[in-house]
Design brief:
7-stranded mixed β-sheet; Jelly Rolls; globular; mainly beta
């Protein structure tokens, strides 16, 4: 019998800093909920909107796998490893913070918001050499199917991280169903609805809802409307 936890969109933590609007699925910064610290190795799922020309000044991270998924606009990244880049919708960015890095993130545009997801996953190795990577995906590869965007294997599709985790994005037309099979024993899946309406294991979800499922071998996803969804498979113990 699988275990399930549902996080409706309007129950997330909310931070409004004027230039930054952020919704926190799990405890982060000033939002603290002891029942929402993590889902297995998934520690942070932040849904951020940054005003034109604004952003996060240089700040440190260590011993965390950090994934950014742009949804709208252009996000400029600079870090202490010398990387300067811009990520946009269709790109995936990953940093292994390891022994420590500093970085900044800014909305490169002066006339529109940038919206992105920032996700933190606990690593399976501590104090690794810091690493940065980004890729551009073919959006057609997620039409009515799940497109792998992250794995533990540098030779596999998408970016890779120091953890036995797999992420997929899918964009489905109304009525389309797909099954997702768990890749590693002991892993669970956290589904986050980017837009639209979907049922997972007969539970109805709407835009920005999250659903965690574990102790199961596979999950059934059915689009109740045109929908886009992110699946994050992570170890439940680490």
């Amino acid at each position: 019998m699988s275990n399930i936890i549902l996080h409706k969109a309007d129950t997330r933590g909310n931070a409004n800093h004027g230039w930054l609007q952020s919704r926190h699925t799990f405890s982060f910064a000033n939002y603290y909920n002891p029942e929402r610290m993590n889902f297995g190795a998934l520690r942070v799922l932040n849904d951020d909107s940054v005003a034109a020309g604004m952003g996060f000044g240089t700040h440190p991270h260590d011993n965390m796998e950090i994934i950014s998924i742009p949804l709208e606009g252009d996000l400029e990244h600079k870090d202490s490893m010398g990387n300067i880049s811009v990520i946009k919708h269709g790109d995936i960015q990953v940093m292994s913070a390891g022994t420590g890095i500093f970085h900044s993130e800014y909305n490169k545009n002066k006339d529109r918001l940038v919206k992105f997801l920032q996700i933190w996953v606990f690593p399976d190795k501590k104090n690794v050499t810091p690493r940065y990577d980004q890729i551009t995906l073919d959006l057609a590869d997620r039409h009515n199917k799940l497109q792998q965007i992250l794995s533990p294997d540098a030779e596999d599709t998408g970016v890779w991280i120091h953890q036995k985790a797999w992420f997929h994005l899918g964009k489905f037309e109304k009525g389309i169903s797909t099954e997702y099979k768990i890749k590693a024993k002991g892993n669970g899946v956290y589904a986050f609805v980017l837009m639209g309406d979907v049922t997972i294991e007969n539970i109805a979800l709407n835009s920005r809802d999250g659903l965690g499922i574990w102790e199961t071998d596979q999950i059934l996803i059915t689009a109740a409307s045109d929908t886009e969804i992110l699946l994050m498979e992570v170890p439940m113990t680490f």
